[in-house]
Specification:
Elements: H1 2-101
Length: about 110
């Protein structure tokens, strides 16, 4: 009889251990899942920060290149305008010379 009671107690103890094990396992899984989610969130935040940093760096590079291109464009425009003015003056002088050399203009 005593043996049967010990077996029943052992079975009950085993069931309790099994239930406790399942509960502890679920709790561990939940804790691990929460830790993983926190780590994923932290990594995502870090990724966003790095992405923003790289985008800012790229924007600075783009702005610098645009300034260079604007300066080159400005220089080219000034050169063209100066050349146009010089050529216009030369053309006006040549036309005046031709008019003066024309026999009917004398």
């Amino acid at each position: 009889m005593k043996l049967i009671e010990e077996i029943k107690k052992a079975e009950e103890k085993g069931e309790n251990l099994k239930k406790n094990g399942e509960n502890e396992g679920r709790q561990l899984l939940e804790k691990t899942r929460e830790k993983g989610e926190k780590k994923i969130a932290a990594l995502d935040d870090e990724r966003k920060k790095l992405l923003e940093k790289e985008l800012n760096k790229a924007q600075k590079t783009i702005d610098a290149e645009i300034k260079k291109l604007d300066a080159q464009h400005e220089k080219s425009t000034i050169k063209i305008e100066d050349s146009y003015k010089k050529n216009e003056e030369k053309a006006v002088k040549k036309i005046q010379e031709l008019i003066l050399k024309w026999p009917s203009s004398q």
